[in-house]
What we know:
Elements: E1 6-8, E2 20-21, E3 27-29, E4 31-32, H1 35-57, E5 62-68, H2 72-88, E6 91-97, H3 103-115, E7 121-124, H4 134-140, H5 152-160, H6 168-179, E8 188-192, H7 199-207, E9 216-220, H8 227-232, E10 236-239, E11 257-260, E12 264-265, E13 271-272, H9 277-280, E14 286-287, H10 294-313
Parallel strand pairs: 4-14, 5-6, 5-7, 8-9, 8-10, 10-11, 11-14
Antiparallel strand pairs: 1-3, 2-3, 12-13
Helix pairs in contact: 1-10, 2-10, 6-7, 6-10
Bound molecules: guanine (GUN).
Amino acid sequence: MVGQRQSTNRMQPTQNVGTRRNQEGLNLVAKRLDGKAIASQVRSEIAEKAIKFLAREGMKPHLAAVLVGDDPASQIYVKNKRLACEKTGLESSLHLLPATTSQSNLLETVERLNADPSVNGILVQFPLPKSCSEREVVLAIDPLKDVDAFHPYTVGLIVDGTPRFLPCTPAGIQQILIREKIETAGKEVVIVGRSHLVGRPLSIMLSQKGPHADATVTVCHSRTPNLEQHCRRADILIAAIGRPEAITGSMIKPGAVVIDVGINRLADGRVVGDVEFESAVQVASAITPVPGGVGPMTIAMLLENTLKAAALQHGEKFN
Ligand code: GUN
């Protein structure tokens, strides 16, 4: 499935039944799918399109980020998204609200951004303080500015097979597969995790008819018996459960492609994925590292959605 392989003479963990060896008896380890490099490529393509958009329309595509409260992780996420906009030639604005903000205050902010023609995309960073309903906020965002692709109208278009915006993490995963020339048609894809953010939309996208899809998709979740058996059937295994190193090498079919969506910080400060990298890398043919795999792609796809939103709002086609 993935041509380029690296060899190593590292010893494999003894319990790892799927370790692959070449003719000389050396262990074969998986190719690292470099999401950071792919994201950088995607961002430079967006930057070129943003320059052309500015020349045509006299404005930069504009992402408005709404941050409620002072959650440190959310502050970093929003800062990184705004930085990425700046580097790519997109406009960004930050709309800060205190943690004590009422729901109606937050909805007023969203309505104001909906009505502002200089704003093309709206991102309300989650989680919100308990006093605010994320569902109500998602419903309030104009679907034409829904660059997170969370609105039920946007999701409906995806299910319908006529997507407008794709959710950023699933779109980033699909881009990794496309750009690494990993075929999905006819493949067994197993997604572990059924979240609205990743697992569910990705299952719809990859099972759809058409290019970069056409897969046979299984979605596993907390009530799935025999998780290991499902995982071991996968040609492409996607881990999106938010549990550190829950998927181990013994759960992976030799030669499978493994996409790790997890970003988990351990007590000792290490950041690990949902896949145990050390054992998985001995069995898979290709794997996304954490960090540096899916994570960077998510922001790149948010920029892409903002550019697309701007184009659509100006009556342009987008491809
Ligand atoms: N919080 C964690 N991930 C996301 C995301 O993709 N979008 C928004 N709006 N909030 C988040």
